């Protein structure tokens, strides 16, 4: 129990440090002390690295819970309690994730830093409503993009076998399977995640908040646990799927294609009902 809280607090602290640093730089009363050569490009160049950091922290949090699976306090929230990751599964996921980050994510971070045109930093932070609306808007746009991509890569056999089958090696997802994906899928997802805040003309702080939230919900979808604080339990009217919805997709691969919300699957007849874990 203690280590769960430690990793959650570390993640929150790091997020607050990054946000506080950005506010210090863009705040009007700090303009005189901010280095004149700092531009939006310099901060955007750190986004992939910040995402990696948060991704590792969020995964560490859930992996500790998975390793402690013999604890009744943890295991009672397991969606598929009889299916636990083996050592070989964990090694394979770690290997694929490291390969993706070394050969794709890190070069993309360097390229973005080197080639992205500099843009002056905004002087004011966004209003809270603007920030929340921007995060939700980006999640909704990504939900549509990935729903189409995901549906095609399940319906067209060549696309599935060539690019997406690697992610479905596990019928009971666990946290390390989040980025157990092929290079094409990783590049596509990363491209949309980076492009969408630009298309929606979001403030840089909104873009950061979206990317951190996006990492969190992606890890949560694959964690294999239905905790009381899961986003699907907190968001009303069954409009959000969360880990229970995505777990069903790994059990029934031709259902629940949307990564976060439920409306596209309901509209196109690919929705499969799911239920929350009932704790004994």
Please explain how this structure is put together.
The model is unreliable at 1-46 (pLDDT under 50). Helices cover 62% and strands 0% of the residues. It is built from twelve helices and no strands. By secondary structure, the protein is mostly helical. The chain is globular, with a radius of gyration of 19 Å. The longest helix is centred in the middle third of the chain and has 29 residues, at 87-115. The chain has helices spanning 2-26, 40-44, 47-67, 72-75, 87-115, 128-155, 157-164, 183-199, 204-222, 231-234, 242-251, 263-267. The protein has one domain. It holds the Pfam family FA_hydroxylase.
Summarize the structure.
The chain is built from 12 helices and no strands. By secondary structure, the protein is mainly α.
- Count of DSSP-assigned helices: 12
- The overall number of domains is 1
Which range best describes the helical content: under 10%, 10-25%, 25-40%, 40-55%, 55-70% or over 70%? 55-70%
Q: Could you give the order of the helices and strands?
A: HHHHHHHHHHHH
| Largest beta-sheet details | none
Characterize the quaternary organization of these chains.
single chain
Radius of gyration: 19 Å
- Would you report the number of β strands? 0
Distance between the termini: 19 Å
Return the average pLDDT rounded to an integer. 79
DSSP strand content: under 5%
Could you name the ranges where pLDDT drops below 50 across 5 or more consecutive residues? 1-46
Shape: globular
Helix-strand blueprint:
Blueprint lengths: L1 H25 L13 H5 L2 H21 L4 H4 L11 H29 L12 H28 L1 H8 L18 H17 L4 H19 L8 H4 L7 H10 L11 H5 L13
Helix pairs in contact: 1-3, 3-9, 6-7, 6-8, 6-9, 8-9, 9-11
Subcellular location: Membrane
Protein name: Fatty acid hydroxylase domain-containing protein
Organism: Pygocentrus nattereri (Red-bellied piranha)
């Amino acid at each position: 129990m203690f280590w769960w809280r430690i990793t959650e607090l570390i993640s929150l602290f790091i997020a607050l440090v990054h946000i506080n640093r950005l506010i210090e730089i863009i705040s009007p009363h700090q303009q005189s002390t901010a280095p004149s050569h700092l531009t939006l490009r310099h901060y955007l160049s750190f986004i992939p690295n910040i995402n990696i950091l948060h991704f590792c922290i969020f995964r560490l949090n859930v992996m500790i819970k998975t390793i402690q699976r013999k604890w009744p306090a943890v295991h009672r929230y397991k969606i598929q309690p009889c299916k636990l990751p083996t050592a070989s599964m964990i090694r394979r996921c770690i290997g694929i994730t490291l390969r993706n980050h070394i050969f794709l994510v890190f070069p993309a971070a360097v390229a973005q830093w080197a080639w992205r045109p500099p843009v002056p930093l905004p002087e004011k932070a966004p209003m809270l409503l603007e920030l929340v609306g921007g995060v939700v808007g980006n999640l909704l746009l990504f939900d549509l993009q990935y729903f189409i991509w995901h549906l095609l890569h399940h319906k067209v056999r060549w696309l599935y076998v060539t690019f997406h089958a690697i992610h479905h090696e596990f019928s009971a997802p666990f946290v390390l399977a989040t980025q157990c994906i092929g290079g094409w899928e990783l590049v596509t997802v990363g491209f949309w995640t980076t492009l969408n805040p630009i298309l929606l003309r979001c403030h840089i702080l909104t873009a950061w908040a979206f990317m951190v939230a996006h990492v969190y919900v992606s890890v949560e979808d694959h964690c294999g646990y239905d905790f009381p604080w899961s986003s699907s339990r907190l968001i009303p009217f069954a409009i959000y799927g969360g880990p229970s919805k995505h777990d069903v997709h790994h059990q029934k691969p031709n259902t629940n294609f949307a990564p976060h919300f439920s409306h596209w699957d309901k509209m196109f007849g690919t929705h499969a009902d799911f239920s929350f874990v009932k704790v004994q």
